[in-house]
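Sanity check. The docking grid for pyridoxal-5'-phosphate depends on where the pocket ends up, so I'm generating a full predicted complex first rather than guessing from homology. Inputs follow.
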Amino acid sequence: MNQNQLKELPSVSEVLLECKSTKSLNNRYIAYIIKSELESYRRSAKKGILKLKRAQITQNILWEIERSTAPNMQSVINGTGIVLHTGLGRAPMKETIAKRVAKRVSGYTNLEFDLPTGTRGKRQDHVNGLLSALTGAQSAMAVNNNAAAVLLALNELGEGKEVIVSRGQQVEIGGSFRIPDVIKKSGCILKEVGSTNRTHLKDYEKAITKKTGMILWVHTSNYVVRGFTHDVSLSELVLLGKKKRVPVVADLGSGALVDISEKGVPKDMLVQDVVKSGVGLVTFSGDKLLGGPQAGLIVGKKALVNKLKKNPIARAVRCDKWRLAFLEESLRSFGDDGPSKDNLTLSLMTASRKSLTKRGKTILSHLPKKTVVTLGITLLESEVEAGSGSLPEENLESMAFRFKPKGISASKLAAQFRAGETPVVGYIHGHTFYIDLKAVIPGQEKDLTGAISAI
Ligand SMILES: *Cc1c(COP(=O)(O)O)cnc(C)c1O
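Predicted complex below; grid placement will be based on this.
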């Protein structure tokens, strides 16, 4: 402990006395900021690494208070190239759609109200028809996210019973979502079959007993097992399930509704194909390849979906009016000829190198020559991932700005971009900083030009 350094810490009231910008902030929030800042300075002092003097510490805390008058969540330019970037909010949506949705639902809306009869309506009805039609399923529902969808399906069909899963499909998605843990938390007993690389139909067959609640099939969407492998196909599992009267549930993860491989996005398993295989239920995310809001979508046999709707967990993980309205908009963006321009996520993913080159050149032409030279900016071809565990092995074609400035490291440059008025999040590869254009939303070019010029 370093007493001299601890003595440099101002008191809460001392900082409060210096603080002038109290108008736009709640006083309790200001006190909260001061205390948590002081706490971190105290930790440094205890370690003996606090280099600052009292006046500077006070000043830093005042700046922190000043900064906190602006909203925490702010608009960011995604220069990582990863369209489905979980850290940056996953699927982006068009501002025009957000405005449209805000107009319809910011006040009151017919969320659970049937206007023709004036009686209580069902919130699931706002998306059930569209989702069923697009996926070819008998029925559909939406919940908070796909993790919740899996939890709900497991609890309803497998509580107190055994859930059979292949050892090769015991996926971890990230953020502590692991299939074995979710099975346990939903009150089911995990019954593992097969091995990491090979699982056969007879493994499933042998595992089915009176205690079996369901067979869970998981799309290993974020990794690939290669070499000496064997999987049981969904249709084989469906046949087995029919024979033994055990429901089969598929956790599909990404949930692509269209094949856009001709536009350069490799084909993932389509929801409608999984439905067609005859499984009882399919679950997938709203904010991955669908390009919608965070949501968990459950489609499949009507009798099973109806059972899930009555489970108390469905109430705990239900969607609010905003999410359902955004989801409806996203589902409506899928026309006969594929996704429309309204689906921003898929338009970003399918943007060609040619169009990205054009946008990149426009940005370069609006930058002062001096900036281009001092920052050593070049536009070159790049390859990016889709993100969020979607299409793990595939790369999408893109274009990126490479920065080779003199006298400043890549990490310093990256930090400067993040600290700008409109923060830009790029990436560092081999000690070099890049801003990829794949996930830069059309319309952000001016802000990006401004951000580069400001460095
Ligand atoms: C992404 C994913 C999940 C989790 O979905 P969220 O919508 O993020 O909750 C579950 N299972 C699989 C296979 C996934 O890919």
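Relevant for the grid: The longest helix spans residues 27-47.
Also worth noting: Residues 77-87+347-454 form a domain with the Aspartate Aminotransferase, domain 1 fold (CATH 3.90.1150.180).
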